[in-house]
Amino acid sequence: MPPRKAIAGTNLEQAKSHNRRVVIEAIRTNGALSRAAIARLTALSTQTISNIVEELEREQLLRAQATLKGARGQPAVPYSINPDGGYSIGLQLDHQLAVGVITDLSGTVRARIERPVDRPTPAQAMPLLAAIAGDLMRKFRFDRGRLLGIGMAMPGPFDVEGMTSVGPTALPGWQDFPVAEELQRLTGIPVTVENDATAAAIGERLYGVARNLGSFVYLFIGTGLGAGLFLDGHLYKGSRHNAGEIGHMIVKPGGLECGCGKRGCLERYVSLRAAYECLEIPDPDHASPELLQALLANGDSLEAWVVQAIDPLRQAINMLELALDPETVVLGGFMPVGVIELLASRLDPLYLSVSSTSARTVPRVLVGAAGKDTSVLGAAALPIFSETNPQFDVLQKPHSA
Amino acid sequence: MPPRKAIAGTNLEQAKSHNRRVVIEAIRTNGALSRAAIARLTALSTQTISNIVEELEREQLLRAQATLKGARGQPAVPYSINPDGGYSIGLQLDHQLAVGVITDLSGTVRARIERPVDRPTPAQAMPLLAAIAGDLMRKFRFDRGRLLGIGMAMPGPFDVEGMTSVGPTALPGWQDFPVAEELQRLTGIPVTVENDATAAAIGERLYGVARNLGSFVYLFIGTGLGAGLFLDGHLYKGSRHNAGEIGHMIVKPGGLECGCGKRGCLERYVSLRAAYECLEIPDPDHASPELLQALLANGDSLEAWVVQAIDPLRQAINMLELALDPETVVLGGFMPVGVIELLASRLDPLYLSVSSTSARTVPRVLVGAAGKDTSVLGAAALPIFSETNPQFDVLQKPHSA
DNA sequence: ATATAATTAAATCAACTTGATTTGTTTTCT
DNA sequence: AGAAAACAAATCAAGTTGATTTAATTATAT
């Protein structure tokens, strides 16, 4: 047996790549910064920063703003991210809808397309997704050299026997299907695939309420329920890419039966599907989140479900806080924002946990900023994140083929 | 407001430090390796490795072994970790016992001391711990320049209002007490403090059953219950150093009352304390784990507790698997090894989770290798780990004061 | 005028890489 | 059996890269 591949070493080239990312990240989280300010922030020398900034400006990733007068000394030239320095395509596939967007580096949507689907199989979905990507690029024209990649979000979990394709919250027929490879083959563009919760987490981290945070959990309430984990500045995906699939954690032993074979799973209480069933909405397979929004407007018609859902949700938050000690828990997903806000307002009092400390700068629970498009926007953020975020991987020399 | 400190950049010095760690880690996980083999494993050039190995050998961290003949070409000189290249002091404080060890780089215990305590306050414990450290160094003499530091393990959580000092499983009076600083002041040696579960996890990762793993969870069953999280090659401690405090997650809504104010917390079922209470052992504050070992030998006297504990334990494992998708879950703690093994044998069938896949190389649950000294050994491993493990932090230039 | 802060330029330095060379075996050929 | 060839490991020396240092320059406020 050959020795297992170890953590790789690094060299100047990798180091530079890291430093470039560090510069971008500093500006992204702080807003426009002068070279001198970046140097202070990153502990690098002003000369190094000057070189890197010059290079990034030449590549149009950064752009200079008006000089900042009013202070002593030579006036500083602040640099900010150039939105048109790069573009990204985000795709999202769910039970009833396929959505695609093009965003620029600032996360602004420059084109958007949606198409209805009905619990699609891979054979149905792949050509459709490729077509959406193509249509998006016809709709919004830009220098193809500036396209960073395609990010795709879809419901997890991936490749779990007896779990991926079971029950009403999973998409059928996707077990073992190599989504990223296939889509990459069809489009000729590099593709990253993540589950919707993870994608949403990245979106909130790059552009939303989690912009400055080092560790947080995104609780994605969709057809089912999942968590996106951002820990110590890194996305955590798990050893088999399935971290955060907490929809099937048990919150009520002996409770409602679940498609996974257990009883009392979290997503039997907190999910769109659970809401539809609890509220006895006909044909839950084809119900839409807007229906809940409508009910919300209509007095307390949601109450029956909220009462059932709120304590399981509290338990889930409590468990995540205890297990991961995040700076905050962000709530979002396909559930309409109004409903999310209703749930959030009903959470008080949260259970005691390690998050129960007065030395907090962020509330224990936040509502996500991106609304119903969270996961497409997050999907589009994936390539941007992987190209610009400082990560441990970057410092490691790639093993040659 | 000054801009928040960003992720720092890197330079040659940091890069070298990383590469040194990479070399050590490669040998640690693979056993003795020749320079050429290290180069292949780390993707660095043979020349670079040659330089680093030479340096590490000069510092006595590595030592050459007999050349390896029998193959073609010039025979390789394998290098292995020199156990006497460094030493570490591990301290462990619990309700009834303070233990200290000196280990060498290979994790072998070279001296051990234990002293009884009774739910000690900081004022009582700090001088005692300092004294243990001093006595250890009188007992086993070595070059003080080779002492990497003191690692200390104690029950968490840290600094949580209404949680740290509440209930029979927490140590009273430690809220806000700066343990590491104080012990460092008393001994003049750098000190790292972690909760016992985290320490144990590091121990298993360096020397135990988790030696080669990138992501695993250590479930520490002690007076209470906690988890140590090792994710993607890094220790995850949480934003306030309290990750893994899952003893207070709810496994039975409306179940047994807990000191934290909730009902049905995990550690009310799975912990030494829970076992003592369930088995109606008199004076649980001063009972000892050996008592359970004795009961175990005595037929099925533990059965009443095992029946109560096993499903909450299953739930906890299920939740951890779903949330973190680790390669495995390691079971250990102060609970006697025999009892841990009994629990492990009773876990089957585990609940369905993302870990339920046939493509596994490691069982879903393992019993820790270190036995009852897990957390002291883990504590001693802390300074070794932080000095030798490749980590993201290492690449970041420290901000000057 | 002077102090101050930002930026730039040139020279220096540390660590990795490259390519050629040396070394000590094993294998193959005569 | 002895010599030559093949081979892999290790070393040497020169070259490259990118961060740092030092010194100078610039633009502003006091």
**Known CATH architecture of the largest domain in chain A:** 2-Layer Sandwich
Q: Give the C-alpha Rg of chain A.
A: 22 Å
What's the SSE pattern of chain A? HEHHEEEEEHEHEHEEEHHHEHEH
For CATH, the homologous superfamily of the largest domain in chain A is named as: ATPase, nucleotide binding domain
Determine the N-to-C terminus distance of chain A: 18 Å
Oligomer: homodimer
What is the molecular shape of chain A? globular
**Arrangement of strands in the largest sheet of chain A:** 6-5-4-7-8
Could you give a short account of the major beta sheet of chain A?
5 strands, mixed
Tally the beta strands of chain A: 13
Structural features, described:
- Chains A, B: This is Putative NBD/HSP70 family sugar kinase.
- Chains A, B: One of its GO terms (molecular function) is kinase activity.
- Chains A, B: Belongs to the ROK (NagC/XylR) family.
- The structure is a homodimer of 401-residue chains.
- With 401 residues, chain A is α/β, with parallel strands linked by helices.
- Chain A has three domains: 70 residues, Winged helix-like DNA-binding domain superfamily/Winged helix DNA-binding domain (Arc Repressor Mutant, subunit A, Orthogonal Bundle); 121 residues, ATPase, nucleotide binding domain (Nucleotidyltransferase, domain 5), CATH 3.30.420.40; 176 residues, Nucleotidyltransferase, domain 5, CATH 3.30.420.
- A five-stranded mixed β-sheet of chain A has the order 6-5-4-7-8, sandwiched between helices.
- In chain A, a hairpin with a 3-residue loop joins strand 4 and strand 5.
- The first copy, chain A, binds a DNA duplex (30 and 30 nucleotides) through helix 1 and helix 3.
